[in-house]
Give the backbone structure.
Amino acid sequence: MSPGEARDSWKALMDSASALISDAHTVLSAESCGRAKSLTVPAQEDLGKALWIYEASERPWSEGSGTPFTADALERQGRTHEEIHTSPRVR
């Protein structure tokens, strides 16, 4: 991905995590603790993916490079929420 694509993906993941945490807070205020907790799981997943992207792209961003790169951890371990929750994975 290009540094610009990485930045857009990082921001989208951070925005998604923030929205999920905000939703969890709203649900918690309605005294639905279990549902609130369940919203924090995909938020943590999005934060993890954002961290992988940030770690891989920090240098290209800082240098202003336009050279495409790969976020190796995301390529190796990143899965969609649906993949995570519908298929078992043994490490």
Remarks:
- The longest helix spans residues 33-63.
